[in-house]
Give the backbone structure.
Amino acid sequence: MSSIQSIDTPSVVSKILIVHNAYQQKGGEDTVVEAEIALLKQYGHSVELFSKTNDVIPHMSRASVAVQTFWSKSSSQDFEKCLRQFQPDIVHVHNTFPLISPAIYWVAYRMRIPVVQTLHNFRLHCPQAMYLRDGKVCEDCIGRVPWRGAAHGCYRDSKVQSAVLAGMVTMHRMLGTWQNKVTRYIALNEFCRQKFIQGGLPADKIMVKANFVDFPQLPAQDRQGLLFVGRLSAEKGIEVLANAMQRIATQQIKQVKLRVAGTGPEAELMRKLSGVTLLGALNGDTVREEMSQASALILPSIWYENFPRTLVEAFGCGLPVIASRIGALAELIEDGVTGLLFDVNNADDLAAKIQWAENNPEKMLAMGVNARNLYEKEFTAARNYTQLMHIYRDAYKAVEGRIQ
């Protein structure tokens, strides 16, 4: 992290315990956890990771996974042992689903250790975690008991698994876990903060801190072609993107080139399209190289993205973003300034924005400069560290003054 500047570190939060239930397929959330751990260590903090991995789930019975999801006795015991040995000033939780479980919040509360929880998705209100059903935004469960999510089988098309998630959320809502046992929440942007408040989380406990990357300024390069980075799945708008590319191919002589970094179940939609190159899964350095050469990143998601890491990576590379006008994306991207917005799920509008971008390369370059300037103001590692310390201090003081 070469660009990090040295600043004073508050002694009251010198030791941080990070908690994360890692996914079977590594995604943006796992990368954020790794980046924050590295950031804290860079500033001289003592950091330990309490983690479980979903790789063991295939070897467990469904009943055992369900019990663990509601209240994992083994995780809470292991967690208490870790707290006593490490004696952290702050516990920072990223994900407890399904093997760690919300039981750990109660352990930390009993031991008077402040808990900060980053809200990477909407699982506390929506069993499927994305407010998405049948390819459209669905808010049926927000602010309510999420029985509709169970009835529809929203999580992995399984009514049983969805019922387990809905039951876990409801049980801990009734126990007051979300209201009382978490000291501070981190929402990744204001749009998501308002959704969490609407869903019932206490407004005075939710603070905003975006994701970050540490990218030094790159030399100017000749930019051309479009780029998509992410999982090739329905919620990412792959069908919309494929349809837009088909329309472009039939409407103009000049071929638009699109490079696609990622894998997933909807890869076939992109495979036979003219001008599309599938790159497969790429490591972070290679993705950055692609971003430094493209003219725009395409982000056609059809769900309420919280804060895709690819967005801040693009801004860090001086790459403007063409994105769906939905949720936080409409807040994070200023239309015509740091990128272009198109109507969500509208392939014709996306095709029109792509064609405009191709016909106005100088204006896209200017938007890229604006994107980099915004990155330097809001999304650097140093800026993120300052925000994180503010949240940690606030949480520490809140517990310090609690009357038992």
Q: What stands out?
A: The CA atoms of residues 172 and 178 lie 7 Å apart.
